[in-house]
Amino acid sequence: MYKKDGYDSTIEELSEAIRCNPNNADSYCERGWAYADRSDYDSAIEDFSSAIRIDPNNAEAYCGRGLVYYDRGDYDMAIKDYDEAIRIFPNDIYAYNNRGLSYCNSDDYDSAIKDFDEALRIDPNYVDGYNNRGLAYYSRGDYEEAIKDYNMALRIDPNYARAYCGRGLIYYDDGDYDSAIKDFNSAIKIDPNYAYAYCSRGFAHSDNGDYDRAIEDFSSAIELDPNYAEAYCGRGVVYSDKGDYDSTVADLSSAIRIDPDYAYAYCGRGVAYYGRGDYDMAIKDFDEALRIDPNYVDAYNNRESAYRAKSGK
What we know:
- By secondary structure, the protein is mainly α.
- Helix content is 77%, strand content 0%.
- It contains 18 helices and no strands.
- The radius of gyration is 23 Å and the shape is globular.
């Protein structure tokens, strides 16, 4: 995701500039970026909107507001703003890239790939374009094309950690855990603070039967990002596989606290309660998992097992 940064002016200085000249779209734009950098999304949207009101052909303001909408998870609004930015400036590589990511997050992978294609037409060496198109191909299930794009990204920039991580996920999905771990190792060597790579390697170690290394990786991911629900969940499931149900309940409770709609975490915690013989708590968790995801087959099966165990059958 492209973000404009490097602003030296403070919000206070920009506010003074706006007070002196309230019709300067650039000042609103710069203050909008400053607010966005502080995650003050409402103020950022207000400023970018003011810039657009003053100058309806301000492509930067549309890009800025689109980025804020993206960060807020409002991908439809982001796409609309990037549409306008591209209409005004048809060769804006970052607008195509960011709109492509918005399409990806909306599960419209075909549209995303078209946008990344256009970004790469403008700049055939745009490494983010290859990486992000690889992500779109991966999400669409086209692993062969995804690997080609990740390989191209790494050919352009051998220190592109995200491409190693993306390719590693494909190897992981194919059950080639050794190759996946090798790529995650490369990503972590390049970026030792890459929480997602640690978490992904943790899953690969877990599925490879190396529970201790998996726990180490999930713990590293949590240390880097204390709000990483998936890492808590991964570590909790490994503890469950080791028969440490108390640690499982603690980790999956943390995952649920971070993400209250995490059906897999409820189901996993239910399994731990079941393992401890606490069938009522297990049934409650399976119920909650099914409330979130009514098509969760494992939750149905596990709940049935808990009912049978509770009745002594």
